[in-house]
Design brief:
The protein is built from 12 helices and 8 strands. It is an alpha/beta fold and about 260 residues long.
Length: about 260
C-alpha cells in the first residue's frame, strides 16, 4: 500500500484547523458549531456552560461523554483539543479534577488558552504536542478523550499505544472518530487534502478495533453516530462507496 507524506499531511492539517480556529463560519467538508454539537447529542444546558467562541470552532464527530461517565476528581487528557469545547465540557464534570488539552495547531491553542483565562477555567490547561508522542508521564490520567482526531494521524497504532501508556490501570479511553467499512483506495489515502478533511485517514473498523486491542486496552462498547454527516459531494461519495461513518468507542486499560 502506498503511504502518505507525513510532513505534508501535518502542515495541511495545521493549516485547515488554523482556519477552523480563525474563521469558524467558513466552508469546510464538515459541519461545525453549536448546532452540530446539539445534533450529536450534547445537551443545551451543558453547552450553555461552554464559551460560545469555543463552540463556534467545534468540529467534533460524535458525543461520547455518556460513555466516559466522568466523575469528581478525574484527571482527563483531551487529544486534539482544538479551541477547547470538549476540554471545557469535561472541566464542568470533574470538580477538583484536572483537564489537559493537547493540540499541534498554534492558533487553536492560542484561542483555547485565551478562553480559559477569560472564563476562569482554572482546572484546564492546554499544551502543544503530537498525539503520537504525548509529552506526559506514564499512568497519569484517569480518562483520555478525543473527538474526530485519531483519523488525522498517519500512525494510529502509535496513538493508541501512547493513550494506553498515559492511562492508569483501569483508566478509560472514550473517543469519537471516523472509520470505514471497506478499506480505502491508495488514491484516497495518499491525498493529504482528503486526509485533512477527516476522510482519507479513516481506518477500516476491524483494523481500528484491533489497533486498540493491541495497545493493551479492552473495548467495552461501541456506538454509531448516524446524525454525523459530511457536507461536500466528494465526502458524501466516499461515505457511500466505502461506508465512511462516525463511531464512539469506550475502552479500558487492562494492564
Amino acid at each position: 500500500m502506498a503511504s502518505i507524506n507525513g510532513e505534508e499531511l501535518t502542515q495541511k492539517v495545521k493549516l485547515m484547523y488554523k482556519d477552523v480556529a480563525e474563521n469558524p463560519t467558513g466552508k469546510y467538508h464538515f459541519e461545525m458549531g453549536r448546532e452540530l454539537a446539539k445534533k450529536l447529542g450534547y445537551l443545551s444546558e451543558d453547552l450553555e456552560q461552554i464559551p460560545a467562541e469555543a463552540l463556534g470552532s467545534f468540529a467534533g464527530v460524535g458525543y461520547y461523554f455518556d460513555l466516559a461517565q466522568l466523575k469528581e476528581g478525574d484527571n482527563v487528557l483531551d487529544l486534539g483539543s482544538g479551541s477547547g469545547t470538549d476540554s471545557f465540557f469535561a472541566a464542568k464534570k470533574i470538580g477538583q479534577g484536572k483537564v489537559m488539552g493537547i493540540d499541534m495547531t498554534f492558533e487553536q491553542l492560542n484561542k483555547a488558552n485565551k478562553l480559559k483565562e477569560i472564563y476562569n477555567f482554572g482546572n484546564v490547561s492546554f499544551k502543544e504536542g503530537f498525539i503520537e508522542s504525548l509529552p506526559m508521564e506514564n499512568e497519569s490520567f484517569d480518562v483520555v478523550i478525543s473527538n474526530g482526531v485519531v483519523n488525522l494521524s498517519p500512525d494510529k497504532e502509535q496513538v493508541f499505544k501512547e493513550i494506553s501508556r498515559v492511562l492508569k490501570i483501569g483508566g478509560k479511553m472514550a473517543i469519537a472518530d471516523i472509520v470505514t467499512e471497506k478499506q480505502l483506495t491508495d488514491k484516497i489515502t495518499c491525498d493529504v487534502n482528503v486526509w485533512a478533511s477527516c476522510i482519507g485517514g479513516a481506518m477500516q473498523i476491524d483494523k481500528f478495533k484491533q489497533a486498540i486491542s493491541n495497545s493493551g486496552m479492552k473495548i467495552v462498547s461501541i456506538k454509531e453516530n448516524p446524525k454525523y454527516q459530511f457536507l461536500s459531494k466528494s465526502a458524501q461519495g466516499a461515505t457511500r462507496d466505502f461506508g465512511v461513518k462516525s463511531i464512539c468507542i469506550l475502552a479500558e486499560k487492562t494492564g
